[in-house]
Amino acid sequence: MHYSKRPLSIEEQINRLEQRGLHFHDRKQAACYLHNISYYRLRAFTYPFQDNIHPSEDHRFLRDDIDFKDIVDLYIFDRRLRNLVFNELEKIEIAIRTQLSLVYSVRHHDAFWYTDRNQYSRASENSFLKLINDVENDVERSNEDFIKHFKTKYDAPSMPPSWMSLEVVSFGTLSRLYKLLDKNAEKRYVARAFGIGDEDVFANWLHAFSNLRNCCAHHSRIWNRRFVVHLKLPYNTIHPFLTRDSAKTLKQNKLFVLLSAIKYIVDVVSPGNSFKQNLKALMEDTHRLLSFKEMGFPADWEQLPVWRG
Asked: What is the pLDDT of residue 55?
């Protein structure tokens, strides 16, 4: 099928949305927003309120009380939420880089342990080679002074020590590295340092965090997203997390479980943090279209063990 839709001017964009049932209290202000936030990007925020099942209805709005400003308010809420989440993920990411490098380097007396094939004996050869290639590419792309200094001063080994390399690899590569490592005392120690007793659960959390971080970094909608990485929900964690009953009822692909996992880890790496207070303040702002249910929040979320503190 050939794509034949023509581009629309700002005025035509407003007219089309109006024809579909969206109200415009201030068309001039709406035009200003559409000059700076693309019609297509905002489509992700109008979509949940439109008829997307019946083509003959031309994506008409299912409610007759929605104004363009409501859509923008939801967009702004999502942007502020992404910034909040990204800030907390930064703390987690830095702590993981530090802990992983420190534990393996010291225990194996090897600054370059991450390049040792024996550390990944259970991984396939292709998986190992792809991992090392990705690490090398991330290091090669880095503009950090400490990487430049290493390359200038040393000619062997070809890669920097782990405390340099793991500082510049992507979170996705870091996540995959941990997952591919053999199950041993070091891998368990790293997981337990973050309050997780099961290495597979911790690997899953890193994968989910990496995916969420990428959504935030690329300014993608997160408030009602169905995430492709389903979070594992243990109820036998080292510190209070979820109850056995709540773990069975929460949606593993919704934002709330990710926020709960972030809160759990941040409480470990940054005691006394203000993540819950900042999240509550953001949620308590007036947002006509915001549905906490769409985010996966249960009614009693603040009573769950991880959120009580």
From this structure: 72
